């Protein structure tokens, strides 16, 4: 999937619409796949779409926002032309559910310089603690249209 030396990286196969909120996640990480299932279950407005970091679209989106697709230790959320990573991405997703989920915003009182190192510590250890799959998790047919690849 990676580009060969001197070649141009592949363009995403699907260009997301400007209004889409897209969550780029690690598709082989069992914790990350559980997070996606959690988002699918709570996103009643169906505002979030998904791309795994292992897909052509996910890799292109990571590169476009300065993240290394071969060292996937960050969650990327794209919404309304704004990119968020790490703990901020999680808080924005929770707020996007609306209702009582917006109360999670109180966690922004904890400075990001404290939240993000905790997020990165979890991200570095996620395979050891939660496991890793040999292939990306596949959504149920009723959710397939929400995935870019």
UniProtKB/TrEMBL annotation:
Domain of life: Bacteria
Pfam families: DCC1-like
GO molecular function, one term: protein-disulfide reductase activity
PANTHER family (UniProt xref): DUF393 DOMAIN-CONTAINING PROTEIN, THIOL-DISULFIDE OXIDOREDUCTASE DCC
Protein name, entry field: Putative DCC family thiol-disulfide oxidoreductase YuxK
Organism: Dokdonella fugitiva
Classification lineage: Bacteria, Pseudomonadati, Pseudomonadota, Gammaproteobacteria, Lysobacterales
